[in-house]
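1,2-phenylacetyl-CoA epoxidase subunit PaaB, pasting as requested.
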Amino acid sequence: MSREAEGAMASWEVFLRPRRGLAHQHVGSVRAVDPDMALEHARDLYTRRGDPLSLWVVRSAAVHTASPTERDPFFANARHKPYRYPEHFAPLAEGDDQRDD
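Structure tokens follow.
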């Protein structure tokens, strides 16, 4: 992984939490030389309307994602673990829920 030069502009991802009870949502990106400047740019760009509860910036290079080409294998169901799926279990018939003690 290459290191960015000191003082070079970096890309930052912006996450905003509009109010209590809601999760942070990705709202866009900004370019800045440091986290403080990234927060200022994010505030200026993404909080013009409303009064958000919190604002996060994360260096884009630190965000790890699954690409669209990895989507099928990455998000594929774990068919080798059938106990995770309801069709693995036989449906109960009437009276099956009683224990034979």
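Note for the archive: The CA atoms of residues 66 and 75 lie 9 Å apart.
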